[in-house]
Structure formats: C-alpha cells, structure tokens
Amino acid sequence: MRIRLTDRLRLEPLDVRHADDLLALYLDPAVAEWYGRWTREEVDREVARIARSWSVDGVHKWMAYHRATGDSVGRGGLSRTQIGGRGASGGRLGVAP
Questions:
Q1: Which of 42, 58, 72, 75 could be a cystine partner for 38, CB 3.0 to 4.6 Å?
Q2: CB 14 within 8 A of CB 47
Q3: pLDDT tens, 20-45?
C-alpha cells in the first residue's frame, strides 16, 4: 500500500476499506452541498472504481486522516481521464469541515 505521511496527515490510497469514511464525508451537509448526497451503493461503486484506477493508472484519490487522532479529514488526489483521445491528470479535493 502506498501510504504517505505529512506532519499532520496520513494519506491512504482509497479502496473498499475506506467506504464507511467516504460515505460519512459525502453525508456531511457542507460536503454534500458540493458533491451531492451519496448513497451507500454509490459509494461502494465509487470505491471499487477508484481501487481499479489505482491498479491500472497507479494514481487516484487518497483518504486523508489526522495523524494524531486518526480522524478522517477528507479525500483528494489525482485522476486520469481521456481528453481528445489523450490521457490527462486532474485533481479534486473534498474536505470535512
């Protein structure tokens, strides 16, 4: 697993183990305002898709945890996509208030 550490955060490649934390993030009203209110089924599909992308592309979203408390604080990272028939990367960030 490609866990990354900063002074304050532990970043874990998002996969099915993170479904509960991702669901809690998307159910937070401040986050849902931007991403919509997700169902468990939508989150399960999303984490499976992200896990596949980590395997295929070697990059995608991370789940972020506060190192001192272990609390989930958000998710973010890069995604691969096709633009004009060429691969490209872009980033997004979702943070718990």
A1: 42
A2: yes
A3: 999 999 999 999 999 899 999 999 99
pLDDT digits (tens, 9 = 90+) for 66-92: 999 999 999 998 877 767 765 544 444
d(CA 41, CA 11): 24
**Encoded tokens for 96:** 């718990």
CB 2 within 8 A of CB 10: no
Neighbours of 65 (CB within 10 A): 20
Cβ partners under 8 Å of residue 63, min gap 6: 11, 12, 13, 14, 18, 21, 22, 72, 74, 75
